[in-house]
Specification:
Length: about 350
DNA sequence: CGACGTGTAAC
DNA sequence: CCTTTTACACGTCG
């Protein structure tokens, strides 16, 4: 089963403030560069009808919103996480296994609990939907199928507040007419390449000779694409450990001034350190993410001995920045980020100052 | 085989 | 006009 909280951030804000309920709501990530620089994180369905969508520049959204009553709010991720945690706990209680994939999405396995009975699965889904509604005032869209991939697409089929069951014999007819870009894992690039060779729908893809796909995408990806077209997915529902933590930010203005950039690195490092402490992890690999004025991203990394505090990473960031500036003396930077990976989790038991 | 950089994808 | 965070595959190098 795949459970997707409907326009999560925007819906939470509606619950928080009854006076904006039903109005178009746009949740924004302000970059702090100018008054309205930044992007739209989430909009509710009322705002989507106007054409305000995720990822859109805020300035553009405001232009569309001109002369209309549209509510713009900044993201309050801390609060959304609290709500999310409560909901995930509630979902977990109704599941054999929970796999949370993001703040507003989860897969659950209910094979045991339902004895592989579709009707029982629908009951479980409705119980979960009802609890989320009564306890948090939010709606969710649910997809039920015999694998994660089909469940994911099913949850997207009727939104918001949907419930879609796809039984095994319904998988092919269900997928058949979908555009390839609707298949989870096929993004913009892959869809474009497929379109170029005349493949528009899932059906087209399933009929395409695997050899042809191998020519273009290589053996592994070809198999993956072919499986997707037939709704085949053997991956299991399992909770996964985080593999990296990062924090990225936008510079006040494009610059190549080492001092200015490093100040931002320090600021981001402190924020990243909070995450490191919160998750109680140590790290071995340290990366500096640079995004230049053309929005091209570069990542430079270095692996060090195990550390549990960002203090150990800061000199590495400095070094990586020096290297970058040396090699790209002409290029100004727009954004900068810090990342740690090669993580190891600790029991709260273990004392940390042994490093 | 581990480390690293890049591309793709999703949220 | 252009945010943030994470994952994973693949090629390459030593």
């Amino acid at each position: 089963m795949h459970i997707d909280l409907d326009s999560f951030y925007a819906s939470i804000e509606e619950v928080r403030n009854n006076s904006i309920k039903g109005k178009p709501i746009v949740i924004c990530v302000y970059s702090g560069r100018t008054q309205n620089s930044g992007a739209v994180s989430t909009s509710n369905y009322s705002a989507r009808k106007l054409g305000i969508k995720s990822g859109m520049p805020i300035v553009l959204a405001k232009r569309i919103a001109m002369n209309k009553e549209v509510v713009f709010l900044p993201v309050d991720i801390e609060y959304y996480r609290e709500v999310s945690d409560r909901i995930m706990n509630l979902i977990e209680e109704e599941s054999d296994t929970l796999e949370q994939v993001s703040i507003d999405e989860a897969y659950i396995d209910v094979t045991e609990k339902t004895n592989s009975n579709w009707n029982k699965a629908i009951q479980v889904a409705n119980t979960i939907k009802q609890k989320i509604l009564s306890q948090e005032g939010l709606t969710a869209s649910v997809g039920i199928a015999s694998n994660k991939f089909v469940a994911k697409i099913a949850s997207d089929f009727q939104k918001p507040n949907g419930l879609t069951l796809v039984k095994n014999e319904e998988i092919i007819p269900f997928l058949e007419n979908l555009k390839v870009s609707k298949l989870h894992g096929i993004g913009e690039k892959t869809a474009r390449v497929l379109n170029e060779i005349g493949i528009e729908t899932s059906k087209d893809l399933s009929k395409c000779d695997i050899k042809v796909l191998e020519e273009i995408f290589g053996k592994n990806k070809a198999k993956l694409l072919h499986d997707k077209s037939l709704g085949i997915d053997n991956s299991i529902v399992e909770s996964k450990k985080k593999k990296q933590l990062s924090k990225i930010g936008t510079l006040k203005e494009d610059t190549k001034d080492k001092k200015v950039i490093f100040e931002k690195i320090i600021e981001l490092s402190n924020e990243l350190n909070q995450k490191i402490k919160r998750d109680n992890v140590s790290f071995r690999t340290v990366s500096l993410i640079t995004i230049d004025i053309e929005l091209k991203t570069h990542i430079k990394s270095e692996t060090i001995s195990q550390a549990n505090d960002i203090q150990r990473a800061v000199p590495v960031f400095k070094q990586l920045l020096n290297n970058y500036i040396e090699k790209n003396s002409e290029k100004k930077l727009r954004r900068i980020g810090v990342r740690v990976s090669n993580l190891e989790f600790f029991n709260s038991q273990r004392t940390l100052d042994e490093f």
